[in-house]
Amino acid sequence: MIPSNVVPQLAAHKTPFYYYDLDLLRSTLQEIKTYALDEGYHVHFALKANHQPRIIQEIRKAGLGADCVSGGEIQQALDTGYSPSEIAFAGVGKSDEEILLGLKHDIFCFNVESVQELEVIQELATKTGKTARVALRINPNVDADTHEYITTGKKENKFGINEEDLDHVLHLLSGMDHIKLIGIHFHIGSQITNLEPFQQLCSKANTLNNHIEEKGFNLSVINVGGGFGINYDHPDEESIPDFKHFFSMFREHITLKNHQQLHFELGRSVVGQCGSLITKVLYIKSGRAKSFAVVDAGMTELIRPALYQAKHKIDVLSSNAEPKIYDVVGPICESSDTFVKDYAMPEVQRGDLIALRSAGAYGEVMRSRYNLRPEFAPVFSDDLK
After folding, report:
1. If pLDDT is split at 50, 70 and 90, which confidence band does 140 have?
2. DSSP 146
3. How far apart are alpha carbons 363 and 272 in whole angstroms?
4. What is the mean pLDDT of the segment spanning 10-21?
5. Is the bond preceding residue 16 a cis peptide, omega within 30 degrees?
6. Which single residue of 89, 222, 294, 319 could bond 283 by disulfide (Cβ 3.0 to 4.6 Å)?
7. Could you tell me if 199 and 253 are in contact, meaning their C-beta atoms sit under 8 angstroms apart?
8. Residues 6 or more apart whose Cβ sits within 8 Å of residue 258
9. Which residue spans of the chain are classified as CATH 3.20.20.10?
């Protein structure tokens, strides 16, 4: 919940903008430290969720590594103080330039998603005289029970190496002298709140771990990816995800050998609840069948509702009036520029300030300049004290 004493300070800023509660972020990171880092697990933060430098610096100071999916994210991690040894590079479409950037800095690991990618890394590493550490991203064919756009661990997805191709890949690796296989990697999807798919992943990871080591490869890294979800409906009741339950499930079901370490890649669960999109009501349109609250933020600032039909809790920060039903819509010239339909919230007027909650992940990072929307800077809670 955004404290009432902060609202006048927020109202002094030009809307729309993102507001980040750094105290909540620090509390979230402390929970991860308690239930993961202190247990010897390695957690990498997925920069694709939020690449604000100030956010990344807090996360780096807490001891999390960096999970990057582009050369730009690798450079951002380096620029915000990460050592190359703390950076993993994933992604199904790594360009030659991005691979060379990783090789130049001798990053911790490339998470490899295809045979051809493996061959290209071998070629580029040979040319540059480098040895690339890699983990094979294997498609475990586990249904994450989430939105189809963010399901990434089934056979029909573009991600990862299919299990039936694994032995062929291992055979190729035995002849690649500039690649060192250090681990296996998985990522089954995003916004997963039911732990059953993760339990299925553990079973598959155990089987594949044994199979690969029987083939003569010594794996030091078992990376189970991320995807742990947050509570979008009730962010104040569950402002920090249940990391204790999440990590204990892996402790119970994953089987590590003495020389192996368990790695995670978390994004949404780290930063999702600490961010809100602050916007102002521009107009009220009342028709026979609908009332519309037109706000100055749109799908250009928060695309998740248009892209995934995602729901965000809306708090009215400047009104305690009786509830009224609205479609909350933005100013963009698209019918899909709708945050929510038939939503009950305190009656609002032109100029009222509202917050779209749980927007710290996949919010600001997915902004666009469509309709030549203006740039804006975020506001951080530390700056309001």
Report:
1. confident
2. S
3. 9
4. 97
5. yes
6. 294
7. yes
8. none
9. 22-271
Instruction: Please tell me the predicted confidence (pLDDT) of residue 308.
Output: 87
Spatial distance between the Cα atoms of 297 and 276, rounded to a whole number of angstroms: 12
Identify which has the larger pLDDT, 163 or 242: 242
Q: pLDDT-based confidence at 153, cuts 50/70/90?
A: very low
Do β-strands 42-46 and 17-20 pair in parallel, antiparallel, or remain unpaired?
unpaired
Task: Say which CATH topology domain 22-271 has.
Answer: TIM Barrel (3.20.20)
Q: Going along the chain, which residue ranges are E strands? A: 17-20, 42-46, 65-68, 87-89, 109-112, 132-139, 161-162, 179-185, 221-223, 261-266, 275-286, 291-295, 314-316, 323-329, 338-346, 353-356, 379-380
125 in Cβ contact with 101 (< 8 Å): no
Q: Say which CATH topology domain 273-384 has.
A: Lyase, Ornithine Decarboxylase; Chain A, domain 1 (2.40.37)
The span from the CA of 204 to the CA of 255, in Å, is 11
For CA atoms 61, 67, 71, 72, give the dihedral sign: negative
pTM, to two decimals: 0.94
pLDDT, position 150: 41
- Rounded to the nearest 5°, which phi and psi values hold at 96? -60, -40
**pLDDT one-digit tens code per residue, 327-363:** 999 999 999 999 999 999 999 999 999 999 999 999 9
Per the listing, tokens 């709140």 go with 193
Helix 196-214 vs helix 243-253: angle between axes, to the nearest 10 degrees?
40
Report CA-CA distances (Å) from 298 to 301, 366, 373, 382: 5, 12, 10, 26
At residue 1, the pLDDT reads: 84
In 3D space, the residue among 213, 223, 221, 96 whose CA is nearest the CA of residue 166 turns out to be 213
Token output for 283: 């107009």
Ranges for all domains in the chain classified under CATH 2.40.37.10? 273-384
